[in-house]
Specification:
CATH topology of the largest domain in chain A: Rossmann fold
CATH class of the largest domain in chain A: Alpha Beta
Oligomer: homodimer
Number of strands of chain A: 18
Shape of chain A: globular
Strand order of the largest sheet of chain A: 9-14-13-15-16-18-17
CATH superfamily of the largest domain in chain A: Thiamin diphosphate (ThDP)-binding fold, Pyr/PP domains
Strand content of chain A: 15-25%
Distance between the termini of chain A: 57 Å
CATH architecture of the largest domain in chain A: 3-Layer(aba) Sandwich
Number of domains of chain A: 3
Mean pLDDT of chain A: 96
Chain lengths: ~525, ~525
């Protein structure tokens, strides 16, 4: 057996059976090894941002890592922006980067670069395998590192000679400890705050907003009147009918402060205190109300769900009945197609247990209102703020959950960064409906320009924000990559097309002109 | 005046009048400042790899830097692969990266990342501006650093509060020294080698293969019988009728060794000894024939053209007549459309003084043969080996040289990485004809798989190399971005479409089915 096969088999033994790949010459032995292992699935992306974004979506939904396969430093570099998002989402990813043979680096061939330097800002763990004999064990350790709570990117660099060299065979999985338990003192402190009579909110992130922790939080809320919150960039949130409702904090600093006005104590469960996404003159970066106290129930690496259950118990709420959102399907809207009526239609037609990959940006206005009573679903957001994530993330989520419909809500500006993911949707026949909000502009930047105090931008500045000249045609773009596509200019057209896409299986794209 | 305007004006004072931009919120004051400076041109790319690739093409052709404008760490990350190519090409680029306000970084907002860490592997110079008062002077130093011979990437990080803060005004240009002079000893050593009677080759890279150094090299060759060579990944080569012919070394190690067989001495002018692009089992990395001596006439940062002129003088060849390639326009080919007949048609129709952006990869077979007697032209190659460079590079070259036709020869696999550059071509009405070689495969990887000794790849391995399912439709993709496009399946169709595109002004795309 060669090192490459040992690596593929070791990852499989550790539970990693899905690879998202954009390989080159230095990864050819790994590609050949994927052939030999029937249980391993290999999915090609035509650009590395597709590969890493899909691995993020897979990690968020599968709760275990996929592997990437990237081609040296430049291949890794192309995947870094979505690895940044994945790092912020605490997604588990085994990030495999091929490299020149160990003895070849010294010649500084054109593709030679500082792979570790590129990897460091996004990786929680980095290792360069040096021997075919140990690359399997390195792979097992990479999986363990990726799964370290709450999840992180483990970058494993595999030189070509390590991949092609002979070795004994794969390594077994290493024991995985799970998240750290939360001590009683943290639970007691949170319970005390919640009993104090102060206006209290529980700010949550991670597993606790889509798993059993959410039920416990709901019991605490019913018992104490505490608000349940998550931040705007929450990686994955369970929402809709039958789910304990969590309020998502707004985007802008002044809106966050407004929202939190009167809150005297914030209990953190896997989250950090809210901050402004950007800095603005005369606007705060730190978004807790003055004098608001903070206590940490669970750090991100700790078992927040168990902590919330212990908290409910400590408050005598173990048997309380949490409130759940009621099913409230929006009516079919009248009037023109705009961001609000589009959101209403999405809320109306959303099938049960759908996954929403949300990079709608300014076009997402109104989604929350129409989705809180919709069929239950998971919504995934641009956790790191780097646009170009929505389409790949949806593809990865669809691979992780083949029986669930994925709806990708995508602004046109951000969609252009990684549109190549549509091709992967077509090749793998992924059950994703992509809605492109086509406003032909970086509308968010028009807002931001005004917020920066630049109220009368000239033609040159506007040309940096306006995408009308020429207009993008997303029906052509999607068709060019093998995805069936249509354009909607009225509410009726959008409703018909979305209904049709949801009833069918496989990729569809709808360009919504707004 | 605010810092952002001081920066834009300082760069202009230092000769940088062109910005390739994909800005975000933290760059809005720079965007607004671009408005105020009429002499500065701002060109939007819909993805950062477009921005950096275009800046590379501009730098190679203009011989001076453009500025980029990128959005924090993830924006820089998306541009890194083409910055890797630019670093290998020694292109001068002022790489401006916006950042959070200095006081905001501490809050670790979602977009916060290690910008310097991302920048380090590609940058020759990095600085984070800390005061509005000095950002203009920082800009002037960045230009100086970018122009440091032979050219490099100078990354200037501009926090938002540095951009929006008040300051006194712009900084003047700093004196630029030019390349270092070559000492007489190096010239004497090269002259001695060339007089020794040994079989000698001059291996060249940089200015010397497209400027006056090439004429001097031609005189030396006529006088001494030395071969004139450049490496396969030469950033810019002047070629065609009336030009001193330079042999481009082949791609694979064994071909290079074959080509150099019998050479006893190599004189380096701006180049380094040839090495294999990748390592292979049983194949050498170092590609000089055994026993071949090396002497350095000029290091990359030194004035190679002056050194070659001094060398000609030292050899008594100052008045010699260099040989120039004769005009030999290829005939119109008969037979089917394939990589050879396509190359013949390109050579036949190439207009005088065209610029070729070459990422044809395996489809470029035969180009050299048909182009050496074609109309004189400059050809730009994928200097760092990172694919996804051809379309952006051609766009940047067209901005630098608006009176010259740009022909972009692009493989379909590599083209998908940065296809968004077509939109910029359309918006700016750039005079670029893009030829997509549509073989629906990573053919180079099929070769490489075989070279790696994997002669019978299975279905899963082949699915990583084959792009047939689904087929990309480049006519749809280009049309979706506003570029007029057509498909050629016969030699007649390709010749007609190429002729039409060359006669018109503005962007066109031809999908060549091979």
């Amino acid at each position: 057996m060669i090192g490459a096969e040992s690596l593929v088999r070791s990852l499989l033994a550790s539970g990693v059976d899905t690879w998202f790949a954009n390989p080159g010459t230095s990864e050819m032995h790994v590609v050949a090894a994927l052939d030999k292992v029937a249980e391993t699935r290999a999915i090609l992306g035509l650009f590395e941002g597709v590969v890493t974004g899909a691995a993020d979506g897979y990690g968020r939904m599968a709760g275990k890592p996929a592997a990437t396969l990237l081609h040296l430093g430049p291949g890794l570099a192309n995947g870094l922006a979505n690895l940044h998002n994945a790092r912020r989402a605490a997604s588990p990813i085994v990030n495999v980067v091929g490299d020149h043979a160990t003895y070849h680096s010294q010649y500084d061939a054109p593709l030679e670069s500082d792979i570790i330097g590129f990897a460091r800002p996004v990786s929680g763990w980095i290792h360069r395998s040096m021997r075919s004999d140990s690359v399997g064990a390195d792979g097992a350790r990479a999986v363990l590192a990726a799964r370290e709570a709450p999840g992180q990117i483990a970058t494993l660099i595999v030189p070509a000679d390590v991949a092609w060299g002979e070795c004994d065979g794969p390594a077994p999985a290493l024991p995985h400890g799970g998240p750290a338990p939360v001590g009683g003192a943290a639970v007691d402190a949170a319970a005390e705050a919640l009993r104090s009579g102060k206006k209290t909110a529980i700010l949550m992130r991670g597993d606790v907003v889509h798993g059993r922790g959410l039920e416990a939080a709901g019991r605490v809320a019913v018992k104490t009147g505490a608000r349940l919150l998550c931040d705007y960039f929450v990686p994955r949130l369970r929402r809709g009918a039958g789910v304990v409702p969590v309020e998502r904090l707004p985007y802008f600093a002044e809106q966050i402060l407004d929202n939190l006005s009167g809150v005297q104590h914030v209990v953190l469960a896997g989250a950090r205190p809210p901050v402004s996404f950007f800095a603005y003159k005369d606007s705060p970066s730190w978004c807790l109300p003055e004098g608001c106290a903070v206590s940490v129930l669970a750090h991100p690496h700790e078992d927040g769900a168990a902590a919330l259950e212990a908290l409910a118990e400590a408050l005598g709420a173990a048997e309380a009945q949490a409130a759940h959102a009621e099913l409230k399907i929006p009516d079919m809207p009248a009037g023109a197609l705009d961001v609000l009526t589009a959101a209403q239609i999405v809320g109306r037609l959303l099938p049960a247990d759908a996954i929403i990959s949300d990079e709608s940006a300014t076009s997402g206005l109104g989604l929350s209102a129409y989705l809180e009573g919709a069929q239950p679903h998971d919504i995934l957001s641009v956790s790191g703020g780097a646009i170009g994530m929505g389409i790949p993330l949806g593809a990865g989520a669809a691979v992780a959950c083949p029986d669930r419909k994925v709806i990708c809500l995508q602004g046109d500006g951000g969609g252009m960064y990684t549109l190549q993911a549509l091709w992967t949707q077509a090749r793998e026949n992924l059950d994703v409906t992509t809605v492109i909000y086509s406003n032909r502009a970086y509308v968010i930047l028009m807002f931001e320009l005004m917020r920066m105090g630049i109220s009368t931008p000239g033609a040159k500045a506007m040309s940096m924000l306006d995408l009308h000249n020429p207009e993008l045609n997303w029906v052509s773009l999607a068709s060019g990559m093998g995805v069936e596509a249509s354009r909607a200019e009225t509410t009726e057209q959008f409703a018909d097309q979305l209904q049709s896409a949801i009833q069918a299986h496989g990729p569809r794209l709808i360009e919504v002109i707004i």
